[in-house]
Amino acid sequence: MKQNRLFLLIALLLAGGLWAYGTFFALPRLPHRRPADATSPGNRRVEKTDAEWRKLLTWSQYRVMRNRGTEWPNSSPLTHEHQAGTYVCAGCRNPLFASQTKFESGTGWPSFYKPLVPNAIYTEPDGNRTEVRCSVCDAHLGHVFEDGPEPTGLRYCMNGVAMLFRSATAR
Ligand SMILES: [Zn+2]
């Protein structure tokens, strides 16, 4: 009996360690490829070196946006933000999503059913998922899934740390 419990403990620690490694320390799983046909609003582009991004972003932003990490669920105050406004990219201020398209997905991550304009973002295959990136600075933002609400049926599952909220009422 005692041995079983010890085995279970070791298995749990191992699984937890692997999960933490994949979530927090893993290097980018895919090389960066910007699709040749990707466009951005007003053809705006922000390109910086890795060193410049490290300086500009916080550690958590850098880990998610430039290293394709995923924030801890429910860690972002934006997950349950419901004021009227716009969500912009934390790296380049590109307007990404409108509050009107935000919904409670129950996942612990800010979720939207469509981007503000179609070319605010672009997508790339990421294993069995579809990655979402900022079309202006190529930052990793999250993933899009096909189990969202009407009218699109899409769920843009975003990392709150990759976005800033601009309230419509604030001056
Ligand atoms: Zn951006």
Strand element count? 9
Largest sheet: number of strands, sense, barrel closure: 6 strands, antiparallel
Helix content: 10-25%
Structural class given helices, strands, pairing? alpha+beta
Distance between the termini: 64 Å
Q: What share of the residues does DSSP label as strand, in percent?
A: 15-25%
Q: Please trace the helix and strand order, writing H or E for each element.
A: HHHEEEEEEEEE
Average the pLDDT over all residues and give the rounded result.
91
CATH superfamily: Peptide methionine sulfoxide reductase
Spatial strand arrangement across the major sheet: 3-4-8-7-6-5
Describe this protein's structure.
InterPro entries: Met_Sox_Rdtase_MsrB, Met_Sox_Rdtase_MsrB_dom, Mss4-like_sf. It comes from Fibrisoma montanum. GO terms for molecular function: peptide-methionine (R)-S-oxide reductase activity. This is peptide-methionine (R)-S-oxide reductase. By secondary structure, the protein is α+β, with helices and mostly antiparallel strands. It has one domain: Beta Complex (Metal Binding Protein, Guanine Nucleotide Exchange Factor, Chain A), CATH 2.170.150. The chain has helices at 2-25, 50-56, 59-65; strands at 85-89, 95-98, 102-103, 111-112, 121-126, 129-134, 140-145, 155-158, 163-167. It has a six-stranded antiparallel sheet with strand order 3-4-8-7-6-5, with no helix packed on it. Strand 3 (102-103) and strand 4 form a beta hairpin. It is globular. The mean pLDDT is 91. The structure holds zinc ion.
